[in-house]
UniProtKB/TrEMBL annotation, chain B:
Gene3D superfamilies the UniProt entry points to: Periplasmic binding protein-like II
The protein's name: Extracellular solute-binding protein
Homology family: Belongs to the bacterial solute-binding protein 1 family.
Keyword ATP-binding: no
Keywords, comma-separated and alphabetical: Signal, Transport
GO cellular component entries: ATP-binding cassette (ABC) transporter complex, substrate-binding subunit-containing
One GO term of the biological process aspect: maltodextrin transmembrane transport
Presence of the UniProt keyword Magnesium in the record: no
GO molecular function, one term: maltose binding
Top-rank lineage group of the source organism: Bacteria
Signal sequence region: 1-29
InterPro entries according to UniProt: SBP, TAT_signal
Short name of one Pfam family: SBP_bac_1
């Protein structure tokens, strides 16, 4: 009787969460799967939308540049976030202020960030070229010459504060005793960083990379606002391509198939990262 | 007597919350909101066209019919995205501004917007199509049905020039041919000023290729950008303006089409090719610029591209008759004249063109000359339902040639191949 009561209580507590996930996640995913089985004219097409994705040069291009974007953002973003965390973990004057300031871009809407950088980087009327001209340097045209790298840079800039906060939490969890012992053994700062800090931050690094990977593979807003996916299709990331297929080409079946394929890729890559993290922990 | 403890209350409260949430989730949403919805009239509009002249009409319409007017303004790409999603969900606005002629046809053939011929036939006073210029009407018709009513009629291909900069470079007259254009652009390119400015938006290439007698599409035969030699000559010439003659900066890829206008307003470009929609921002933003407006250039021929929005009624609009009534007020000659006075916009009515205020305005006279040389549109492309897809392919090719300096011939060939396949 008590067991039944306990089970009932447990179910009552679980029901809102179960309903939330069923109504807002699993049902839409199921609906998307169904939509993915139909072509643009609403005719049942089986799995052809899924197989079409592997033959579509635009989709393959967008997938490859998304991987490049994700890799660039993860590597640079993690390095910058970790570097900032290590610096601001020292007892510096005004470090709380610096930490807060660095977190502001993360708290700012992506639309504002996109518009801000688009205006800053505009070669003709942007403020960056005015500053470069003022100090006698040639103007930049990065949005035209290195559009993907520019989007990576903006992403890193906007996310560095958040990554820094995560690494700061990880750093503060490392007992000072280890550093003390290493110092007594004659280890220098670099040695201490590579032998103590980096290995003990492995769980944080795995977390940062998984969250970062999921976010970057789904990135849509930044290239949409800054470059519109251009020039040409140079910044038409996978989610942007998916958007074009759905809302420009009006092919919701194919777009649904593409989004499900993205879900599978994200799941696989996240599992791989978790495995790597487990091994590192072991 | 049952005993109640804290856990019992917690359980009870949770149970009620869950039941409430399930009940709310399962309850039909319509009846509760129907009353409010029926008094709200929703309009989707382009953000650049939110003129006072239209606001007054819309506000008055709301008062006359005791309606809450929900006038939503978007950039064109966002309006298109929202409308596409609305058509799928069935929750549509009551009236929509159409991005360009042919878009309504595309939606209409898919059953998403209404053919408006019956409304127009029953409303002789409105004067459609008799009082509207033919090119604006024909481009919105397919197989005898009209899917939108012209709101604006403009031409992309007008030459905007800074009189002071041209005069300082020794040119008292604006260029009228491609050779003269290049000559003046070279003469006015100095320090931080470019002789001209090209647009990253591919639709702004239309006047140039029309001037070489190039048709963007022949959808019936799945042909694009032909004749090929004219297309090659046009895009190569445009590319050379940037990379060979260095009289135009390479445009930046964005979703915004106002780059050249901003450069012009900042006195960093002496000339650019556009339409009447850029007159207002220049006059308001840089009143010290002596703005000159000239007729379209002559390449092999003198030509411009037709532009201008329309009005369409979604098939699932709550009360299409009410929507039609608002169309007749927004596209009335009185409103047209007020919008022209306010923003310099040109309009599709013959009675508008005949008005003394319009006939006496030199800028409007220039626009009228441009309208007389607009190239014919391929209605079959809109009817194919693939116009947006083909335009996206053209955007990619155009930006590769103009911004990324890709070789023109192969880029055009790729576009033709991909556009043909899309159809």
């Amino acid at each position: 009787m008590i067991r039944r009561r306990q089970a009932l209580t447990a179910w009552l507590f679980l029901t809102p969460a179960v309903l939330f996930f069923v109504l807002l996640f699993f049902l839409p995913i199921g609906n998307q799967l169904m939509t993915g089985l139909y072509d643009a004219d609403g005719v049942f097409a089986g799995l052809s939308n899924f197989s079409r994705a592997f033959r579509d040069p635009e989709v393959l291009h967008s997938f490859l540049i998304t991987l490049a974007y994700a890799a660039g953002t993860l590597v640079v973003g993690t390095a910058v976030g970790l570097g900032l965390a290590v610096i601001l973990n020292q007892s510096l004057r005004g470090r709380t202020l610096f930490r807060s300031v660095l977190l502001i871009p993360y708290l700012t809407s992506v639309s504002i960030i996109g518009l801000l950088w688009r205006n800053i980087l505009d070669p003709q009327v942007g403020i960056l070229n005015r500053l470069l001209e003022a100090v006698g340097l040639p103007g930049q045209t990065w949005l035209s010459t290195h559009p993907l790298a520019t989007i990576v840079g903006i992403t890193v800039w906007s996310g560095a504060g958040y990554t820094m906060v995560l690494f700061l939490a990880g750093l503060q969890g490392i007992p000072g005793l280890y550093y003390e012992a290493a110092r007594i053994d004659g280890a220098g700062p670099w040695r201490r960083f590579f032998a103590i800090t980096l290995p003990l931050l492995a769980p944080t690094t795995v977390f940062v990379s998984i969250i970062g990977l999921i976010g970057t593979l789904q990135q849509f807003a930044l290239p949409y606002i800054v470059t519109g996916g251009g020039p040409g299709n140079a910044t038409s990331l996978y989610a942007h391509r998916l958007f074009i297929v759905a809302f420009n080409d009006n092919d919701f079946g194919y777009a649904s198939a593409l989004s499900l394929l993205l879900l599978i890729v994200v799941l696989i890559l996240s599992l791989v990262q978790l495995r790597i993290g487990d091994r590192a922990d072991a | 007597m049952p005993s109640y403890n804290r856990r019992s209350f917690l359980r009870l409260g949770l149970g009620v919350t869950v039941l409430g949430a399930v009940g709310a989730g399962c309850a039909p949403a319509k009846p509760a909101s129907k009353k409010e919805d029926s008094r709200t009239f929703t309009i989707y509009w382009n953000a650049g066209h939110g003129y006072q002249a239209y606001k007054q009409v819309i506000d008055q319409f709301g008062k006359d019919h005791d309606l809450q007017m929900n006038w939503q303004k978007f950039q064109w790409p966002d309006l298109t995205t929202k409308l596409t999603a609305d058509f799928r969900s069935g929750n549509v606005p009551d009236l929509v501004e159409e991005v360009s002629a042919g878009t309504g046809t595309q939606y209409g053939l898919a059953g998403n917007v209404l053919a408006l011929d019956e409304f127009a036939a029953a409303d002789k006073e409105f004067g459609f199509p008799g009082d509207f210029l033919d090119q604006a009407v024909v481009a919105r018709q397919y197989e005898g049905k009209t899917y939108s009513i012209p709101l604006h009629l403009t031409a992309n291909g007008l030459l905007f020039y800074n009189k002071q900069l041209l005069s300082a470079a020794g040119s008292d007259q604006p260029p009228s041919t491609w050779d003269e254009f290049l000559e003046v652009a070279k003469a006015t390119t100095k320090d931080k000023v470019s002789g001209c400015a090209l647009n990253s938006d591919p639709s702004y290439a239309a006047p140039y290729y029309n001037q070489q007698k190039v048709d963007f599409s022949g959808a019936g035969a799945k042909q694009f950008m032909l004749p090929a030699d004219g297309a090659l000559k046009t895009l190569q010439w445009m590319q050379d303006l940037i990379y060979t003659h260095k009289v135009s900066p390479a445009p930046v890829a964005t979703t915004d089409y106002s780059g050249p206008q901003k450069l012009f307003s900042a006195k960093r470009a002496a000339m650019f090719v556009s339409g009447p929609w850029d007159i207002g921002p220049i006059r308001q933003g840089s009143p010290d610029i002596e703005l000159g407006l000239a007729v379209p250039l002559t390449g092999a021929v003198q030509s411009a591209a037709m532009a201008g929005s329309g009005l369409m009624i979604p098939a699932k609009a709550k009360d299409p008759k009410l929507s039609w009534e608002l169309i007749t007020k927004l596209a009335a000659v009185k409103t047209e004249l007020a919008a022209t006075k306010e923003a310099g916009m040109s309009m599709p009515r013959k009675s508008w063109a005949a008005d003394p205020a319009v006939a006496a305005d030199p800028n409007l006279a220039t626009i009228a000359k441009a309208l007389a040389v607009v190239a014919k549109q391929d209605v079959a492309l809109s009817a194919s339902g693939k116009a947006a897809q083909v335009n996206e392919l053209w955007k990619k090719a155009y930006q590769q040639m103009i911004i990324q300096h890709a070789p023109v011939g192969p880029a055009l060939d790729d576009f033709r191949k991909q556009a043909g396949a899309a159809l």
